[in-house]
Amino acid sequence: TTSTPAYKRILLKLSGEALMGEDAFGINRATIVRMVGEVAEVTRMGVEVAVVIGGGNIFRGVAGGAEGMDRATADYMGMLATVMNALALADAMDKQGLTARVMSAISIEQVVEPYVRPKALQYLEEGKVVVFAAGTGNPFFTTDTAAALRGAEIGAELVLKATKVDGVYTADPHKDASATRYATLTFDEAMARNLGIMDATAFALCRDQKLPVKVFSIFKPGALKRVVMGLDEGTLVHA
Ligand code: UDP
C-alpha cells in the first residue's frame, strides 16, 4: 500500500510546550486533540507507539531552582507536572479510539500504574499506546533523557523528537532566510556543529545505543505519518 510503515515500534517525545498551543502555559485541549489525531493515524498503520511527555508547560525544575528552590525538589515538581500532562494525553487518546496506558517512573499508585518494563512491552504488542510519565524518575535529568532511555529499553527503532521547527537547520530559519534543513546528520556531525538536538545526556545515550533520532514538527499536519513511512521529513540523526 501507499502507507507501509518503515518502523514497527517508535518512541515519540512530546515536550510540555507542545500541549500549550497558543496559550502561555497549561494544556490546550484543541492542541492535544489535533496531536492525538496524528498519533492515531500512525497507530492505525500498525506502528507500536510509546510516548514520553514533558512538563515544561507546567513546571521546569531549572527555573524553580534558579528562583531559589532546592533543585532536586524543583525537579520532582517537574516530574509530577509530566504526570498531569500524561493523564490529559491518555484521556484524549482514549476519546479518539486509542487505548492508552500511563506508566509512571515515580509511583503514585492511586493515579497511574508504575513503569514495569515487561508490562510496557506487553501493552505495545497489544497495540496500546504507552505514555511514559515522570521522566526518568530522577532529578537532574530531562524528559529527553527519559525518551532516550525508554526508547532503548523498549527496543524502539526510532526516537522522534517533536519540535516546533520541522527539522534541524543550518541556522535559525525564523531569523535567516538562507537557512537550510539537514535531511540527515550523523551523531558526530551534530556534535561537531554543536546543533543542540537534545540535551547532552540524552544525546550520548542515543549515540551509544545507535538509536536514531528524528527531529520533526508535530504541528505540521501529516508530518508524523511521513516520518513513520520513512519519507523525507524532518532531520534524521543516526550513527
Ligand atoms: N525532570 C526531572 N527528571 C526527569 C525528567 C524531568 O527532574 O527525568 C523534571 C525537570 O525539572 C524538568 C521538568 O521535569 O525541567 C520537565 O521536564 P522537561 O523540561 O524535560 O519537559 P519538556 O521540556 O519536554 O516540556
UniProtKB/TrEMBL annotation:
What is any one GO biological process for this UniProt entry? Answer: UDP biosynthetic process
Q: How is its activity regulated?
A: Inhibited by UTP.
Q: Which reaction does it catalyse?
A: UMP + ATP = UDP + ADP
Q: In which pathway does it act?
A: Pyrimidine metabolism; CTP biosynthesis via de novo pathway; UDP from UMP (UMPK route): step 1/1
Enzyme kind, highest EC tier? transferase
Q: Name one GO molecular function term.
A: UMP kinase activity
Where is the protein situated, by its record's location annotation?
Cytoplasm
GO terms under cellular component: cytosol
- Boundaries of each Aspartate/glutamate/uridylate kinase domain copy? 8-217
Q: Which residues bind ATP?
A: 13-16, 56, 60, 163, 169, 172
Query: What residues bind UMP, as annotated?
Result: 55, 75, 136-143
Identify the InterPro entries for this entry: AceGlu_kinase-like_sf (IPR036393), Asp/Glu/Uridylate_kinase (IPR001048), Uridylate_kinase (IPR011817), Uridylate_kinase_bac (IPR015963)
Query: What Enzyme Commission number(s) apply to this enzyme?
Result: 2.7.4.22
Q: Does the keyword ATP-binding apply?
A: yes
Please classify the protein's predominant subcellular localization into one broad category. Answer: cytoplasm
Domain of life, source organism:
Bacteria
> Which controlled-vocabulary keywords does the entry list?
ATP-binding, Cytoplasm, Kinase, Nucleotide-binding, Pyrimidine biosynthesis, Transferase
Matching entries from HAMAP family are given as:
PyrH_B
Subunit composition? Homohexamer.
Name the family. Answer: Belongs to the UMP kinase family.
Function per UniProt: Catalyzes the reversible phosphorylation of UMP to UDP.
Q: What is this protein called?
A: Uridylate kinase
Question: What is the organism field in this record?
Answer: Simplicispira suum
